[in-house]
Amino acid sequence: MKGPLFYAKILLFGEYGIIKDSKGLTIPFNSYKGVLKKHSELNKLQKKSNKDLKEFYKHLLNIDAAIVRFRLKEFKLDLLEGMYFDSSIPQGYGVGSSGALVAALYDKYAEDKITVLENLTRDKLLKLKTIFSEMESFFHGKSSGLDPLNSYLSLPILINSTTDLEPTGIPSQKEGKGAVFLMDSEQIGSTAPMVEIFMEKMKNEGFRKMISEEFALHTDACIQDFLQGDVKSLFSNVKQLSKVVLGNFKPMIPQKFHQLWQKGLDSDDYYLKLCGSGGGGYFLGFTEDYNKTKEILNQYKLELVYRF
Prior knowledge:
Layout: E1 6-13, E2 24-38, H1 44-61, H2 72-80, E3 83-87, H3 97-109, H4 122-140, H5 146-153, E4 157-161, E5 164-167, E6 179-184, H6 191-201, H7 205-228, H8 231-248, H9 258-267, E7 271-274, E8 282-287, H10 290-296, E9 302-307
Antiparallel strand pairs: 1-2, 2-3, 2-4, 4-5, 6-8, 6-9, 7-8
Helix pairs in contact: 1-2, 3-4, 3-5, 4-5, 7-8, 8-9
């Protein structure tokens, strides 16, 4: 058995803000992927995946059948026959490792599934998001369902609000000097505690004001610039967003990166932002000269996401 591939995702803009109804833009990232496989003899890593899937099976037993129904007998049999998720997506890095797994399981076992080939109305997208949110809550305690949605559809998705989503097109990449890139922090992040910190901060009126008046404003502007291909305006808005994140999301940025983050803002050589919930994993970087930035950040592993 070998199923279809499900890719990693990158939330280009909207981390945390999408919890509070600001815009977001998520794109598939085909450098990493996962696939369901079955083998009678499993190695140590595959055994761990099989064991984790057995725990996930129990979670699916408790999902309301009014939301989604699964062919659970088939799932259980496949698990007994050595099914595992073969994935190159790094875990705890903010690129949707659990989302790809959720998408693969929905694709294989859901009854009456919504497919990519049909007309994806807003209602269908919201239904998928609700289903994926229920499924992925097994991993994060609370999930927006967006990571699996992106992985399942393998399309860029524009999030206008929690109840308004649409597949979108992004400008084709250019062979220019500018780039969006991932920077490896070389430490694993965990989503649940970071979201908890954010929710705690949201109890503060000043923080809430900053989210709606600064963070959401710059995020929305970045999305508009990116979709319209206005690179000059995009870099100006990304700089403002990077500044706001450094000033207000320090717990989500490991201490040793605070200075590096500020250095980018001071020099205008690159701008960093969170990729997912932060706390480790990847950071997203934006630069107008990728080769120069690679030299400046040569002690870190960078991966190209998009060319300007």
